[in-house]
Amino acid sequence: MIRSGEIIESFRIAIESVRVNLMRSILTTAGVVVGVVLVVLMGWTIKGLDAVWEQTISIIGKDMIYVDKWNWTGGGNWRLMEARKDITLAQVEQYIDRAEAPELCMPTVRSWGANVVVGNQSLRCSAMGVTYEYGMTPAGEIADGRFFNQIEDEQAADVVVIGHNIAKTLFPGGNALGKTLKIQQRPLRIVGVVEKRGFLFMDFIDNQVFVPLLTFRTLYGFQGRSFSIAIKAGNEAMLSVVRDEAVGLMREIRNVPPSRDDDFSINEMKAFDAQAANIRLYIWIVGIGLTVLSFIVGSIGIMNIMFVSVTERTKEIGVRKAIGAKRRSIAVQFLVESTLLCLTGALVAFPISQILVGSTQWLAVHVFDFEAASVVSPFIPLDLLGIAAAVAVVVGLAAGLVPALKAAMLNPVEALRFE
Amino acid sequence: MTSPTPIINIEHISKIYEMGDEKVYALRDVSLTISKGEYVALMGPSGSGKSTLMNMLGCLDTPTSGRYEFNGANVNELDDDELAEIRNREIGFVFQTFNLLPRATALSNVELPLVYSGMKADARHRRAAETLASVGLAERTGHKPNELSGGQRQRVAIARALVTQPSIILADEPTGNLDSKTGQEIMALFDELYRQGNTVILVTHEEDIARHARRIVRLRDGLIESDKSNGASA
Ligand SMILES: Nc1ncnc2c1ncn2[C@@H]1O[C@H](COP(=O)(O)OP(=O)(O)OP(=O)(O)O)[C@@H](O)[C@H]1O
Ligand SMILES: [Mg+2]
Questions:
Q1: Any alpha helices (H) in A313-326, and if so which ranges?
Q2: Does A278 score more than 70 pLDDT?
Q3: B106 to chain A, minimum CA–CA distance in Å?
Q4: What ligand is nearest to the CA atom of residue B49?
Q5: pLDDT tens digits along A352-405
Q6: What is residue A213's three-state secondary structure?
Q7: Do residues A110 and A252 both lie within one domain?
Q8: Predicted ipTM?
Q9: pTM to 2 decimals?
Q10: From the CA of A20, how many Å to the nearest CA of chain B?
């Protein structure tokens, strides 16, 4: 058992020792400082990405399902999907007729290589043919103006709703409403601008224009295009019911024999979670690799300085032993010292990390135009500081162990003799 | 006059240092009994084994062969931590070079053995302050060693040795680093401790110093050459 008096004494000695050799102490903790900074940065980045991602999928709609010829997340066999028959508008309409579970469902069709022209400026983007109901899904939420209405829809009116980035690029002044843009030489009146939707690797969502389905047909035709069905389940709990119904209905509509796999894919926002998890994993691997590396370098530095400290204080150790210090008392004294050294490193690292985190966030939002970062806190969360400090303590204990044991095992007579 | 209770009883103790092929006999077959309340001087020329014997008596070192009984306990059978405990409770060391912790105050230095014995802080402060006062340093408790004279430093060291109220006080050339006047003052302090009933053992090669003791043990080449009571002073 170690007495509290000894622990306090150890802290007193350790603080004294760190203070007396302050410059040396700070220099030797450089590795630990880097390690702690990395832990904090990594933790903050992961938390930040999670926040951005959470924001993204909740904006696009956690309760949305898209039935499509293609699997959007890149799963499945590309050649098999290529060989699938297109989903026709008639099939979509059959589904819409028969589906009971969803709150809302609608056909969509897309041309990836649309050319939008305003004056002498042109922009490549993706054009979607949708019905007015698309305006009721989270992906069609309007920032400015309105979504086109049912009448415009049915009359194949020459109206268009544009994505956030398109508005920003073509109308930097922000006065897109009521203006005209041309697609396939056809002038279309801008009636609405969609709220910024795409964060992270979903940026393409903001580079879209929406026209009524029938307008789309006059622009691009339906020939050779596969439709997809956008389905809003209503709430997350309904997702599985809606999904099961969609699979059943689509198999029936597309005459898939029971022995065959689905010849369509069910895409959910949730599926993108896997991608987010992957990114998180890469950050972890790289971050942990760098962190471990710097902590190894750091602990070698600490171990080295602790060996120096033990040697410098050999005589002192002899005196302490002569007056009754047990081995563990001596060991504790040096362990406390190495731990305190590492905590000093952590203390130096915290303001550095805060400056880095704060400026990274600011740069991301203001210089790199990565607006998504604005949902991330520019401050280091406290639990992260706690974790970083705990890691520093562990490194201190590990790095101090061998020197502390060496000190504890010294022969008192030889230690006293040491000059 | 002296109580017959032996506090130290060593029998046929040898200490051999192996230096490569060569063997250095620091002590050869030494036997010695010291009773409670004695005042003993260990004398002898340099290299005769005084310090080696002193370290053995103080449980800092273990003999190569032979038997050591301290207060009736067989020291040979004790492990490092048990020896540390004996040193803490029963033995007070005073060194030639004082060996105070340079960055700690006089009071903290004196308190240190009590830290290791687990005494509570206030009791510790009180006891250490009393002990410092008893060696005449009541006014110097907050001074660091480099703010004290040599004689004062040795008094702090003596207070540190006394603070646990040990069974014996061991001093290895306690006046070796002091001028003769200060040395005599320190010896007066040891005389006083002896009069109060403490067991005092000191190493010296100065006859002037040895004269204070009641018994003089002379070593030569690791052997006890003579062991006489000292009639000179009374
Ligand atoms: N660690 C050691 N290794 C080898 N030999 C040693 C060691 N310690 C002591 N000796 C030898 O043992 C002998 C006795 O040494 P010791 O220190 O006891 O002498 P001493 O009587 O105290 O001498 P002094 O008056 O100079 O202090 C010496 O010959 C010394 O060289
Ligand atoms: Mg000696």
A1: 314-322
A2: yes
A3: 15
A4: 1
A5: 999 998 998 888 877 776 666 777 788 888 888 898 899 999 999 999 999 999
A6: helix
A7: yes
A8: 0.94
A9: 0.76
A10: 10
